[in-house]
Amino acid sequence: MEKQLHLNLLASRPPMAGGLQSGSKMRMGPGRKRDFTPLPWSHYFETMEDVEVENENGKDIFRIYCSGSHGPVLLLLHGGGHSALSWAVFTAVIFSRINCRVVAMDLRAHGDTKVKNPEDLSADTMAKDIGKVVEALYGENPPPIMIIGHSMGGAIAVHTAATNHIPSLLGLCVIDVVEGTAMDALNSMQNFLRSRPKTFKSLENAIEWSVKSGQIRNIESARVSMGGQVKKWEEPLSSPGVSNSIGEGIIEEEEEEEAEDESNNKRMKEDDQEMKKESVFTWRVELSKTEKYWEGWFRGLSALFLTCPVPKLLLLAGVDRLDKDLTIGQMQGKFQMQVLPQCGHAVHEDAPEKVADALATFMVRHKFTEFKEGYLC
Fold this sequence. Notes:
Elements: E1 47-55, E2 58-67, E3 73-77, H1 88-97, E4 101-105, H2 123-138, E5 145-150, H3 152-162, E6 169-175, H4 179-195, E7 199-200, H5 203-212, H6 219-225, E8 230-233, H7 257-277, E9 280-283, H8 291-298, H9 301-307, E10 312-316, H10 324-331, E11 336-339, H11 347-350, H12 352-365
Parallel strand pairs: 3-4, 3-5, 5-6, 6-10, 10-11
Antiparallel strand pairs: 1-2, 2-4, 7-9, 8-9
Helix pairs in contact: 1-12, 2-3, 3-9, 4-8
């Protein structure tokens, strides 16, 4: 049972015991409906831009979302299959607490980033990507940078810090990825990925699935971040593997009969409209095809993390995730750790305020920045 709680280290894991389990039904009050319509990035970030970097095969283009013009830079790296938009709600929250700049980037082969070799997702290549983007943004004298990564992005953050790709590195924050549990879970990862719906009939359906399955517990974050996980797939509906899976993964709510009838009628109209469009949504990244890189992301991660010569913060959804090396390191005071219970794997999406509070306190304590005037911590 314990291993089952760690299966999803690349994409968002279903809730831990005690929360709503994946596939469970969620009760709501009579007639209450939730809004699953997408939210734009511009509600949370000030700017969006594409950064060009030179590579051996030509130019790669990395999509970034930014806020702020002064203070240290928070460089945000998302998890496998996700995008920079997974940091949207967190960005708005942290920006209200401390003086900082935020740069959230779509990693190689993710989101709206376009690279010449999207198949190369090795830790070494992605760490070099981070360094190149920082250099393209700031030249040879970058401002102080705090690198923060979730899951796969946390592993890449550690590799980036350990190989000194960011000379102005202030600190390192890793969210819910630990070598021991990550390595234990890899054998079960393909089964988890096969259990997800392959397609959705609309972006709204993808958002609905992510919330009701427990992949993202914060509906606001799901509404802005799922657009970075899925893309429109223009294919005839008679194509193999499409027609049978359009509605997969959507979990019906138990409501009063009148509300249910109204909802069903609305669904039928929406289904008809989607059928006419002959389009479905599918995952932007085929995570199952990245398997050969998984071990390289996580093996040796704890030792690398502990040897990074900057102040370090580890945020976990459960204390059970600590492996032996980190347990010893934590007892020796080599890093600061905080457990944020009642969260799924997507900690920064599920509880953006708690993550922002932990990070803000950490940065102020180390004198990296100050709380914003008027903010009561």
